[in-house]
Fold this protein.
Amino acid sequence: MSVLVWIEQSQGQPVASSLEVAGKARALADELGTTLAAVVMGAETADVAAAAQTYGVDTVYAVTDPVLAEYRLAPYAAALKQAITAAGATVVLTSATTRGREVIADVACELDAGLAPDAVDLRVEGGKLVAVRSVYSNNILADISFAGDVQFASVRPRSFPVPEAGAAGGTVETLDLGLSEDAIPAKVVEVKQSDSGEVSLTDAGIIVSGGRGVAADPEKGFQLVADLAKTLGAAVGASRAAVDAGYIPYKHQVGQTGKTVRPDLIAAGISGAIQHLAGMGGSKVIVAINKDPGAPIFEKANYGIVNDLFEVLPALNDEFKKRLEKNGRLRQLNRNAEGTVEHASLCPFFVLIPAPLMPTVERPARMDLSDFGAGNARLVEFARPRANGCAQARPCLPMRICCAN
Amino acid sequence: MGVGNASLIDNSGVAGDMWTTAAALAAAVKAQGDVDLVITGKQSVDDNSSAVFVGVAKKLGFPLLANVSKVVDIADGKITVERLVDGAQETVTAPLPAVVSVGKEINEPRYPSFMGIRKANRANIPVTPLADLGVTVAPQTSWTNVRKPEERKTEVVIIEGATAQEQAAKLADALLAEKVI
């Protein structure tokens, strides 16, 4: 018996939302009086396994195989299944990323076991897992309990805080996948990073979102939304109305059948139709900008500005730039040039500092970064330049991301 | 809309779970005989599980290509698609028969034609009770305490100001003070 978590990796580093799950899983394992196991998979797993060890995992199972170089359902599901057996897992958890949802469903179905997809909360009751799901466009919550001994759940990103990394502990065991390339039906022909330079909606700490209010000039409207998002290190969102009108691609849609978000949100020119509100139910602070003082979104918002977004957005961008620059906290967020910043969205403020200039510290030590205008900071993650991301304009140094909170 | 024929699985009165649904759909696909491609949606708006199509592929033993945004090519017993996965766009190929789940980007549905609507009204859609498909019903999960989430209670602070710049300045101060930004 144990609790098993798949810690996904992206460019050699753990994906933030899987660490959220690992943090919660540690608490569940303690409550169940059992151990916490993690599985890491890929063509290379040393870095992610080492990172996993700092989050209270008792045993990390590393499945390292060339067939895992690109994500494909069959070998990833086989690896998860192997880890379940090795760990004797009774509770199996993944983050509800596209991959996490697919892999866990495949294995749960194969084992004919119960699955709670996209759970928003987990707890232990009578020695078993109970998962809370948010369904019917977040209008209904339900407790899911499991009939069998092995219980599966994928967890909606940002349902739990990312745990603090501690000293490395536990052990790493390697598992041999033993799957030949010939046995895998799907072949990956090409992978394009589609959101390089953008913060992804599901991981974002802040979203700046646009709606039908941009209709007068959609292109300019969403440019203003994107400008403000860039200043704040935020993701760009959109209401369904804006997506349906073709102002912006579907991947930006927040709400019903789009993405459900839980961050703080600035909504510009969004009336607040039910499905968009459904997508932002978990948000802590909502700011509404709308010309119409009667727009329903004001009923859900914490702050409102009744004015034209075409005037307010650039003004907000100016004001934030002024203040953040003054505080030395302007986010230097150029993901393209500076590598992955998965963890950066967890920081209220952060700075990217080239590694050679960094004081040598062990995580999660705090350090004085006043030379960099960041004051006292905490090193959260290492970032590496993407192979294709070394722009000529910037030196291609390994970067350190520091939380300056 | 152009569908040649349809069949309806009647699961009324059956307390199953997502794997029951997947098994029923897989059995219905098998009953069609030689199927090359199974196309499903991305998730239902009500249950939002995104798991049924994974189960259908598993139970059929077909490869699954999920979140497909574009079918690039179908040739030589293979399908090539573009799919959207966590911030990346992949081009993937798999042998047929296969299951693909598609999102909103896949197509703009055409309008039903007048003749099509008339034809559809006369169409005979056979109904198969779930029991006839040989699906065992053994739900692995149960739902309890189904409830409305707590209402979000907020008191909106409307930021006043003579100009947008003034409003923006006040809002920026408020959000920084709240440590949102």
About this structure: The first strand of chain A starts at residue 2 and ends at 6.
